[in-house]
Amino acid sequence: MGAGEVLTVIDGLGLHLRPGEFVSILGPSGCGKSTLLNILAGEDAFDAGTVRVQGRREESGARKGPRPKDNTPFRLAVVWQQDSLMPWKSALGNIEFPLIVLGESPRRRKVIARTWLEAVGLTGFEDYYPSQLSQGMRQRVSLAAALATRPGLLLMDEPFGALDVYSKLQIEKAVIGLWEEMDATILMVTHDVQEAVALSDRVIMLTPRPSRVVLEKDIDLPRPRDLDALYGTARFHTLVSELWNALAR
Length: 249
Fold this sequence. Notes:
AAA+_ATPase; nucleotide-binding; ATP binding; Rossmann fold; two-stranded antiparallel sheet; 6-stranded mixed β-sheet; ATP hydrolysis activity; alpha/beta; 249 residues; ABC_transporter-like_ATP-bd; 35% helix
């Protein structure tokens, strides 16, 4: 691109998330998946269009993140592909930090942080610093920190893409188990078709840039889901094949 040229990343994209739904976004690299999440998170401004959360409109140019209609803070959390842990804080301290921002008392936030650290399978690692943890363990801490705030909307940008196969499966199990116990909506960007099918209620496929929705696929797999058993079922493989074929067109 030359100086002054305008690059349109997203154009005419319409997306509706139902409360408590788990939705994954698939699409080619560079199509605007992460840009969409950044807009929803309030990290990026957008030139045209509207974002609505619980009836509250966020117009183009806004970078404040969504707020519900009654102006009470809407709890939104993000888990990025690369963890954003503070290296000078312990695992417990990283989970406590967003609770400090929310005004939780010291005693209460320690209880919450320990509960979520246990929930992601890291009991005993409370005092470990990020440099002492594996990549998979750091991502579990990031997940715990996000979920500890009890978000209404959890955005995840390829959160498991850099993990080894074993760590990826373990954290996928943690996510699906914890989400099935919560009242949260999840929007996840991923390149992994199998992951999208295994975790989601619905999969959205985007076109190359400027991105639009080209396919919406309901994932008609029963819940709760046992991922170990799910990967061996005929219906799972049929859904994966259908999405791969759509991507290849």
